[in-house]
């Protein structure tokens, strides 16, 4: 009996009991749909996060003031005073072989006002190298100059969201907006970057010289910054750069061997790894759920195939009488189980894809349906059919033709 | 000799109870013969026919079919012999339900697999013509009378062009008129050279055969046990 004919017989047997076949395949349908949807949503999410991480800048290392709580010693809030813009300049100057650019970040917040429009946003004080560190460009206008930075001039460039909200009709370049009642001249608008991996809008920001922010907005006499953002030439240099930055900062902060670091180094690979492990954990959990569903589905198929073998005992006897060998019968019932689970798998793939896309639309969540996940799901459902169909098929093939023909 | 049985035994053991369904049966059937196996219920007719049909194996004794010893073949080899050399006709027809007459007739060729789909359909149509059902290709068993269903079964038995047709009470479920038609068909097929071995307990049905074999308690009695039909 050739394979095509076996398949035709199997499909016809399935079509004959449509409702029963559908109910039997339900476990497989649910399991495969779950796997497809989870993989699509998960892969979409991690791809999005990765691209957002990349959008944050080139091979970044972040340095925060404060200590890791290591060895039971915690330097506490005093640590937040420890990081200075000069530390950043030192890193840029002394570690030129690794470091492309450095910017300090001084954060402030407030309401920006232009004419009758106002908008609450964050204000970041940065250095000249900011654009290079963040891999960002001006859409219009220019960035501030070294002179602005030295003088602490009241100038700024604004993110797209701020531009859209404060200047819905005007070109912002050259206009003056007010922050805490102080006028700031807008030099230009940054290109749009979208949200970052934490979901916050990177374009909702005002960028000014850190000197200005510290002096005018923070009224601070201290030289401290909230963060140093360091961009490296190569991702591979991250471990080496972290060691060198740490030892340079320890030296500059005059820490002895027994004292903990008074700063934290964080790099993108750590964040990437964290996101990766969360995604992995989610996948494992959902795969476990899907596996249970597929197991239940497989047992359902086994059950219905045993029923089918009993129902069709006479047919089996007849087929044997006219020349079916035991292996013909075995193959026929395995094929039937496989066809049942594969049809279920196909329906599952369709539902999974549709479900993932619906979730993607409703939740604004990126979806990534890969060919390989569809193919694997399909092959897996076929394998379930073969596995769970084998025992019923074996029983059918071992039946005695005379007993079958006499069976009532 | 097409069929040679020598000292065939079939014994069923049910606990302490031993049933000799066949008790030292020797029988030869020549090519072209038309044999009616008769006897009371429980005399071993079906047991004998099942062994002749390679559906069952004897407890002891030898069975030569077309010169080949089949008494101790594997299940797969017996299946091939059934497919190539034997056609079966059953009392209850054993057609696949909800399946057209044509497809029912095609079925035996599924298991030798040397025919293309169109060859298979053509041959099945010829066989339906041969049994007088040329206009009933698409009818399912439920849409056919008993006599017509049995003719579909006969067409199916003819599909692989076997030398022997084995029929166990082929008219047992049919009215007198259909029975007569089936027996006419058998007589015609026999004239065309097919050997027919048929089990029946009805005298007038057996009368259509060339030769009768009587059975009682698992033994062949009375009738000559070998040889060609008397001319
Ligand atoms: N599978 C079986 N198990 C036990 N006894 C059987 C079996 N098949 C047939 N027999 C016994 O063998 C004898 C012959 O049966 P069978 O050949 O069917 O008779 P019949 O001439 O009516 O066709 C009967 O006594 C029957 O009870
Ligand atoms: Mg009987």
Q: What order do the helices and strands come in, and which of them pair?
A:
The complex is a heterodimer of chains A (408) and B (231).
Chain A: H1 3-16, H2 18-56, E1 60-65, H3 85-94, E2 99-114, E3 117-126, H4 130-134, E4 138-141, H5 146-151, E5 155-158, H6 160-166, E6 176-179, E7 182-190, E8 205-209, H7 210-217, E9 227-232, H8 238-252, E10 263-267, H9 268-311, H10 313-321, H11 326-363, H12 371-397, H13 401-406
Parallel strand pairs in A: 3-8, 5-7
Antiparallel strand pairs in A: 1-9, 1-10, 2-3, 2-6, 2-9, 4-7, 5-8, 6-7
Chain B: E1 3-14, E2 17-29, E3 34-39, H1 45-52, E4 60-65, E5 68-69, H2 75-85, E6 86-89, H3 101-110, H4 117-130, H5 146-158, E7 164-168, H6 176-191, E8 195-199, H7 203-206, E9 211-216, E10 219-221
Parallel strand pairs in B: 3-8, 3-9, 6-7, 7-8
Antiparallel strand pairs in B: 1-2, 1-4, 4-5, 9-10
Helix pairs in contact in B: 3-4, 3-5, 4-5, 5-6
Adenosine-5'-diphosphate is lined by residues 12, 14, 19, 21, 39, 41-47 of chain B.
Structural class of the helix and strand makeup of chain B? alpha/beta
Question: What sort of overall outline of chain A do the alpha carbons produce when their principal axes are compared?
Answer: elongated
Q: Please give the share of residues in helix of chain B.
A: 25-40%
The SS-based structural class of chain A is alpha+beta
Distinct helical segment count of chain A: 13
Name the chain pair whose interface involves the most residues: A-B, 21 and 24 residues
What CATH architecture of chain B do you see?
Answer: 3-Layer(aba) Sandwich
CATH third-tier fold name of chain B: Rossmann fold
**Approximate strand percentage of chain B:** 25-35%
- How is the main sheet of chain B built? 6 strands, mixed
Overall pLDDT confidence of chain A? 87
How are the strands of the biggest sheet of chain B laid out side by side?
6-7-8-3-9-10
Instruction: Catalogue the unreliable spans of chain A.
Output: 68-80
What is the CATH class name of chain B? Alpha Beta
Order of helices and strands of chain B: EEEHEEHEHHHEHEHEE
Number of domains of chain A: 2
Helical residue percent band of chain A: 55-70%
End-to-end gap of chain A: 27 Å
Mean pLDDT of chain B: 92
């Amino acid at each position: 009996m050739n394979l095509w004919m076996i398949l035709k017989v199997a499909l016809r047997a399935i079509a004959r009991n449509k409702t029963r076949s559908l109910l039997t395949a339900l476990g497989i349908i649910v399991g495969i749909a779950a796997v497809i949807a989870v993989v699509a949503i998960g892969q979409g999410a991690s791809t999005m996060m990765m691209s957002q991480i990349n959008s944050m800048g080139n091979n970044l290392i972040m340095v925060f003031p404060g200590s890791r709580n290591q060895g039971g010693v915690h330097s506490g809030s005093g640590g937040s005073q420890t990081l200075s813009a000069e530390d950043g300049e030192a890193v840029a100057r002394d570690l030129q072989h690794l470091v492309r650019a450095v910017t300090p970040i001084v954060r402030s917040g407030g309401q920006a006002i232009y004419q009758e429009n106002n908008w609450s946003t964050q204000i970041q004080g940065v250095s000249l190298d900011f654009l290079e560190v963040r891999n960002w460009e001006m859409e219009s206008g220019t960035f501030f100059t070294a002179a602005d930075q030295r003088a602490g001039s009241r100038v700024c460039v604004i993110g797209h969201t701020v531009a859209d909200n404060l200047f819905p009709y005007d070109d912002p370049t050259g206009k003056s907006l007010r922050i805490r009642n102080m006028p700031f001249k807008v030099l230009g608008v940054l290109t749009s970057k979208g949200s970052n991996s934490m979901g916050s809008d990177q374009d909702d920001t005002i960028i000014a010289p850190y000197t200005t922010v510290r002096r005018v907005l923070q009224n601070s006499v201290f030289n401290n910054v909230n963060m140093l953002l360091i961009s490296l030439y190569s991702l591979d240099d991250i471990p080496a750069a972290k060691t060198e930055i740490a030892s340079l900062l320890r030296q500059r902060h005059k820490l002895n061997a027994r004292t903990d670091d008074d700063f934290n180094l964080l790099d993108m690979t750590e964040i990437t790894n964290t996101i990766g492990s969360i995604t992995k954990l989610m996948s494992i959990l959902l795969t476990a759920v899907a596996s249970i569903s597929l197991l239940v589905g497989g047992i359902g198929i086994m059950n219905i195939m045993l029923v089918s073998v009993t129902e069709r005992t006479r047919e089996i006897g007849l087929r044997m009488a006219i020349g079916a060998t035991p292996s013909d019968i075995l193959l026929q019932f395995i094929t039937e189980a496989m066809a049942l689970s594969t049809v279920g798998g196909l329906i599952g793939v369709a539902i999974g894809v549709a479900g993932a896309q619906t979730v993607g639309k409703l939740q604004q969540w990126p979806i990534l349906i890969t060919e390989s996940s569809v193919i694997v799901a399909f092959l897996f459902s076929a394998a379930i059919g073969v596995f769970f169909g084998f025992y019923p098929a074996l029983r059918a093939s071992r039946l005695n033709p005379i007993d079958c023909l006499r069976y009532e | 000799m097409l069929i040679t049985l020598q000292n065939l035994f079939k014994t069923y053991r049910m606990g302490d109870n031993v049933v000799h369904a066949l008790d030292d049966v020797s029988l030869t059937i020549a090519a072209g013969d038309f044999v009616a196996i008769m006897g009371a219920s429980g005399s071993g007719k079906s047991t004998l026919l099942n062994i002749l049909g390679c559906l069952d194996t004897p407890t002891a004794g030898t069975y030569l079919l077309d010169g080949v010893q089949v008494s101790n073949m594997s299940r797969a080899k017996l299946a091939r012999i059934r497919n190539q050399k034997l056609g079966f006709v059953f009392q209850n027809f054993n057609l696949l339900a909800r399946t057209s007459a044509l497809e029912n007739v095609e079925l035996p060729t599924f298991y030798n697999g040397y025919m293309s789909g169109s060859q298979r359909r053509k041959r099945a149509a010829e066989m339906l013509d041969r049994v007088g059902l040329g206009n009933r290709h698409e009818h399912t068993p439920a849409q056919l009378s008993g006599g017509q269903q049995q003719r579909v079964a006969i067409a199916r038995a003819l599909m692989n062009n076997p030398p022997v047709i084995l029929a166990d009470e082929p008219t047992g479920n049919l009215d007198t008129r259909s029975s007569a038609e089936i027996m006419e068909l058998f007589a015609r097929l026999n004239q065309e050279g097919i050997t027919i071995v048929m089990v029946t307990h009805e005298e007038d049905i057996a009368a259509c055969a060339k030769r009768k074999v009587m059975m009682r308690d698992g033994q062949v009695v009375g009738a000559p046990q070998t040889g060609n039909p008397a001319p």
